[in-house]
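Pilot study result, target chain (183 residues):
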Amino acid sequence: MTRGGFVGLLALQAAGRKTGQMTPKKSPFEIRLESVAGPILRATLLNRSAGPLMVLHDRNLQPSEPWLSLAGGKEIPFTDKRSIAKFDTTPYRVLYRKLDAGREMLLEEERFLPADDGASYFFLWGPFVALGLAPGRYNARVRWKSTLTAWVDSETRRHGNWSDIWLGEVTSNPVEIDLPERA
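Predicted structure:
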């Protein structure tokens, strides 16, 4: 995408935001987070609105973001791998999905993996990674921000904005996850 094309997309998106038509006060979405044996975290996005809405959940452009803390409250830092990766930041039209009312879509489902040190774990969630996780009990949540309305058609390079998209932030329910001692 050319710089001028991207600036044009930003202007279109800003114009859509000024109308106030796309930003209801309450989120029409709910993130359902669950802890599954493995240990695994699974997050789904539920459309609670009365009609279909467009959704952009993409690991590079608009990912869901994990949050972990020890049971005592100490937050676990994540590294965002996008800060060191090169990728196309164009919001292609095909990346958006229509999510019908009452339907769910999987955001992420990821396993805590054993680290090479034989004692700890690491966790990858989209572009986010946490290293050196000791066995124990953790609290988890997932947050997703919907900030983009602009799209580009990958074949015609035509661009526009979705009118049926919600802009805002939604956070999941909290869950606990246990990382067992490694033998």
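One observation from the pilot: The radius of gyration is 18 Å. A full batch analysis is planned for the follow-on phase.
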